[in-house]
Amino acid sequence: MPTRFVVHPAYRDFALTGSASFLVGLAAMLVISILGRTAGPVFVGEYLLIRRMASWFQAGVQLPSGVALPRFVAFNIDQSGLIRQTYFLGALLVSCLIGLMLGAILLFWRNALSHLFFGSSQLDHLILPLCVLLLGLAMHGVVFGYFQGTLSMVSASALQLCNLVFIPVLAALLLRSTNSIPLIVNTMGVVMCICSCLFAWPLVRRWEPGGTFAQLRLQSSELLSYGGSRIFGDMGLQAMLSLPAIVAAHYFPIGSVSFLLLGGSFLTVVGAASQPLATILLSRVSRSIAQSRTDQLRLQVTHFVNALIDLSVFTCLQMVIFSDVIVRVWVGPRFLEGIHIIQIVIVAVPFYFVYAGLRSVIDAAAVKAYNTRNIAISGGIFLLSLPIIKLCVPPVYLLEALAASGVLGLAVLTVCTLRTIRHLLGIELKWARLLPGVCLGVMFGALSSAFRGWNHHELGLAGLALYQLVLTGLYLLIMWVLRSSWVRFVLDTMFLSVAQKEEMVS
Question: What is the average pLDDT value for the chain, to the nearest integer?
Answer without folding.
Answer: 79
